[in-house]
Amino acid sequence: MPDQRPLGPDDSVECVVGIGPKTALVLASMGISRVADLLFHLPRRYEDRGRVLTIDDARKRRGPVLLHGRLVVHSGRYLRRRLHIADGELKDESGCIPVRWFNQPWIVERLESGVDAFVYGALGQARTGRLQLVNPEIEIASRSSAVDTLVPVYGKLGPLAGKRLKKVLDQAFGCLAGVVDPIPVTVRRELALPGLAEALYSLHRPELPDEADKRDRVVAELNRGATSGHTRLAFDELLAIASVVAGDRARRLEQTASPVQLSAGFKEKARKLLPFALTSAQHRVVGEILDDLGRSVPMARLLQGDVGSGKTAVAILAIFAVLGSGRQAALMAPTELLAEQLHHSISATLGAQGARVRLLTGSVSAAEGRSIRSEVATGETNVLVGTHALFQEGVAYHDLGLVIIDEQHRFGVAQRQRLLDKGDSPHLLVMTATPIPRSLALTLYGDLDLSIIDELPPGRSPIRTEIRGSDARERIFRFLRSEIEEGGQCYIVYPLIETSDTIAAAALQEHEAGVRKALDGVEIGILHGRLGREDRERVSERFRTGKLKAILATTVIEVGVDVPAASVMVIESADRFGLSQLHQLRGRVGRGARQSWCILVTSDEPTEGARQRLRVLEQTTDGFAIAEADLEHRGPGELTGMRQWGVESLRFANLLRHPELVVRTRSVARQLARQGRLDEVREELLRRHRIGAEFSIG
Ligand code: ADP
Ligand code: MG
Question: What residue numbers bound the domain in which 91 lies?
Answer without folding.
Answer: 51-147
